[in-house]
Amino acid sequence: MLKKGSRVIISDNSGGLVGEIISFPYGNSITRSISVGDIVKVAIKQATPNTAVKKGTIYKAIIVRTVQAEKTKDGIISSCGNNAVVLLNDNLTVIGTAVYGYVCRNAIMTKPNEVKKILSLAQGVY
Fold first, then answer.
1. Is residue 64 in a domain?
2. Which domain holds residue 17?
3. How many folded domains does the chain comprise?
4. pLDDT, tens digit, 9 for 90 and up, residues 57-88
5. Is the dihedral of CA 108, 110, 116, 121 positive or negative?
6. 1 lies in a domain?
7. What is the pTM of this model?
8. Under 8 Å between Cβ of 19 and 42
9. Rounded to the nearest 5°, which phi and psi values hold at 41?
10. CATH number of the domain that 78 lies in?
């Protein structure tokens, strides 16, 4: 589970490396925690030079991996070694052309329409 101010790794090739969660649009922002499949706003803290994504800009992103173990309704427990997001534009389409690493199965169950493109670009699903 993530909160505001959590640092995340950007796991696509859009040019961003590290981001910080600054807000999420749905629910009460004081008590709600963020899990896999949620769409959040991310401020770019570190970026590669000469790319479209610049340091200090704000993008929407979808959470694809978290360190915290999460249990689905059918009893599957999933966790990963890092917190990762994929950057989206205003139309909720992926900015990059490749997604590095795996995508959590919970993201597929919660937001099937937004992650169709992410699944086709990812290395796999766990």
1. yes
2. 7-125
3. 1
4. 999 998 888 887 666 666 766 667 789 999 99
5. negative
6. no
7. 0.82
8. yes
9. -105, 135
10. 2.40.150.20
